[in-house]
Amino acid sequence: MATLRGLRETPRHLLVCEKSNFGHDKSRHRHLVETHYHNYRVSFLIPECGVLSKELNNLVMEAGPYYFVKNLPLHEFITHEFINTFVKKGSCYALTYSTNIDEDNTVALLPNGKLILSLDKDTYEETGLQGHPSKYSGRNIMKFSAEDSSVMSYFSKYQIQEHQPKVAISTVKDLQCPVLRSGELGGEAEASCSAQELFDWLGAAFCNADLNNEPNNFISSYCCPQPSMVVAKACLCTITGFILPEKICVLLEQLCHYFDEPKLAPWVTLSVQGFADSPVSWREQEHGFRKGGEHLYNFVIFNNLDYWLQMAVGANDDCPP
After folding, report:
1. Which residues contact 138 (CB under 8 A, 6 or more apart)?
2. Is the peptide bond before 227 cis (omega within 30 degrees of 0)?
3. Are 258 and 47 in contact (CB under 8 A)?
């Protein structure tokens, strides 16, 4: 019975919300993006927009490439040639592919050159390395992303494949959106919705869930928080692959420029999800899967360049930075 109760429980998570302005000297938006290394999905939503601008569309289509390298031995990461070719440039990211962080040996390369090894007990003892026990209970396919195209030639003696991120762009009609005010992170009764309510709503919107709570809908009973407004159309774009923080920084900056000219949209959002089985979330903070494996962040960008930043991880991870 205890096991059944555990399965029925909704996975808990930690959500940290803060607000600032992109023009503030102490705004840490760029640092938070740059230190969330392993990203597999980026989504943005623009209310009152039917077609992406040329600038945004070009950025979306230039999000790749990334590479799969099969049967790559780990000693490749510590050769002088690899360090000089990739690590010293500070733009190489790698992550084992199709491994379960709570069960398998998992490896991640960070752009600062640190190699993170999450090993089972037997493998750890075989290596003879000094480490510390994880808070969570050979050779693998590695997923690489780098700023230049030298990955293909460098790993040509292995089985390597180049991939482009998958892009999905859609126009959502008559979308019911929460009313937000940039200065009211906690919302105000009958005037604006809170950051928590917006966070829940975004999850439903990205899943294309119905938001009207109709009595004959047996899939979703969720409804848009109040107060709300209905926008005639909204542009939803999702990029899935291995996406560099540098690419996300450029996309975030372009979304800020969206408001250089007057727009009907009062705000836009940018959401980034990390790989569920990455051994780290932000910087070198240990990450585990448990029930969900989530580590993600979301920007709400207002037309006055105020922003809300929401960061979420599983309840057993350390609090987001």
Report:
1. 105, 123
2. yes
3. no
Give CA–CA dist 186/315, Å, rounded: 21
Q: Tell me, what amino acid is at 265? A: A
pTM: 0.88
For 63-110, write each residue's pLDDT tens digit.
Answer: 889 999 998 888 888 899 999 988 888 778 999 888 777 777 888 899
Cα 130 from chain centroid? 31
Residue 125: count of CB within 10 angstroms of its CB: 10
* DSSP conformation letters of 21-84: ETT-TT--HHHHHHTB--EEEEEEEEET-SS--HHHHHHHHTS--EEEEEEE-GGGGGSHHHHH
What SS3 class is residue 250?
helix
Phi and psi at residue 312, to the nearest 5°:
-135, 140
Distance between CA atoms of residues 22 and 19, nearest Å: 10
The Cα 72–Cα 204 span in angstroms is 39
